[in-house]
């Protein structure tokens, strides 16, 4: 927090605003660190929680308290381990609103670091963003990421906050957006100044736990979203096995034509998106990652049947 909070406090935003930090029953020096920040930044609003909500796992209760404490209508949310990529984050995200907009979906990137795990994490993040941002553009918004998400207080209270899924540890971002987003009230913002940056998982086990928790909420999506996302995942799982079978047992020329057409479509679709999301360095490896996605979806398919966790880890 001490490392990332200054990024939100030094934003170049002329209009009156506040930066709310919810200190949720911390046992470290967070309280004193926040008090020191407050001496320099009077826009900082500290909310101290000293009691836990026993029946509401995860961060939904502290997040709800922070939203209720907010003075202004437009909320811009991020996590303690995230930092805005620029000093214009608030200004550019707020600029995405128009007369009908109530929700703005942003991009939460990860720091670029050496190693295969970092590239896997960033590719999966890029791939997920490609889906939820394009679905939103098509009027079918189904999720956002809590690392970079904005919506209005009125829509939060109109949908009774997170009450519909308080029993699920995660989902404060995707399940709320899945319920509240419509064709008319949702916009995306992929200006590079609006990105946030986070530290990626350092071990495969840590990353696996994070992704298992995320996918366990998918069963609560609207039926249309579950069908479309499920069909897409299914297509990635069956493509390469069918391709190999076709090469060996059927018409190999036709199989290569289908593979080539798909390859070219990916080539031309992924590059402009990777450029806009500042992930061009992983684009040359897209075929390798596409094959990896077969194993990824196959491996995480069991989470669809896993009971959602009631504890945050």
Structural notes for this entry:
With 313 residues, the chain is an alpha/beta fold. The chain has a domain at 71-225: Spore Coat Polysaccharide Biosynthesis Protein SpsA, Chain A. Helix content is 47%, strand content 11%. The chain is built from eleven helices and nine strands. The strands form three sheets. A four-stranded mixed β-sheet has the order 3-7-5-8. A three-stranded mixed β-sheet has the order 4-9-6. The chain has a two-stranded parallel ribbon with strand order 1-2. Strand 1 (19-24), helix 2 and strand 2 (44-49) form a beta-alpha-beta unit. Helix 9 crosses helix 10 and helix 9 (223-249) packs across helix 11 (286-300).
Which features characterize this protein?
4-stranded mixed β-sheet, 11 helices, 313 residues, single chain, elongated, alpha/beta, 3-stranded mixed β-sheet, 47% helix, Spore Coat Polysaccharide Biosynthesis Protein SpsA, Chain A
């Amino acid at each position: 927090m001490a490392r990332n909070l200054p990024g939100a406090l030094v934003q170049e935003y002329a209009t009156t605003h506040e930066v709310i930090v919810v200190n949720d029953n911390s046992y470290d020096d967070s309280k004193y660190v926040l008090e020191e920040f407050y001496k320099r930044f009077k826009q900082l609003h500290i909310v101290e929680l000293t009691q836990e909500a026993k029946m509401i796992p995860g961060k939904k209760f502290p997040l709800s308290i922070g939203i209720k404490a907010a003075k202004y209508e437009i909320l811009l949310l991020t996590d303690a381990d995230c930092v805005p990529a620029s000093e214009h984050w608030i200004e550019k995200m707020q600029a995405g609103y128009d007369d009908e907009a109530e929700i703005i979906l942003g991009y939460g990137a990860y720091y670029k670091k050496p190693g295969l795990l970092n590239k896997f994490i960033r590719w999966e993040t890029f791939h997920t963003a490609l889906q939820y941002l394009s679905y939103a553009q098509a009027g079918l918004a189904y999720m956002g990421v809590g690392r970079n998400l904005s919506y209005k207080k009125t829509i939060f209270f109109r949908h009774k906050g997170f009450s519909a899924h308080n029993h699920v540890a995660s989902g404060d971002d995707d399940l709320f957006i899945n319920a509240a987003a419509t064709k008319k009230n949702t916009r995306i913002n992929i200006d590079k100044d609006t990105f946030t940056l986070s530290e990626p998982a350092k071990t495969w086990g840590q990353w696996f736990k994070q992704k298992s928790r995320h996918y366990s909420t998918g069963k609560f999506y609207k039926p249309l979203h579950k069908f479309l996302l499920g069909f897409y995942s299914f297509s990635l799982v069956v493509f390469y096995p069918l391709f190999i079978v076709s090469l060996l047992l059927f018409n190999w020329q036709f199989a290569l034509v289908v593979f080539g057409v798909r390859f070219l479509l990916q080539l031309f679709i992924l590059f402009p998106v990777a450029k806009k999301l500042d992930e061009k360095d992983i684009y040359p490896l897209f075929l390798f990652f596409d094959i990896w996605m077969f194993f990824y979806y196959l491996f995480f398919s069991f989470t669809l049947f896993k009971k959602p966790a009631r504890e945050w880890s």
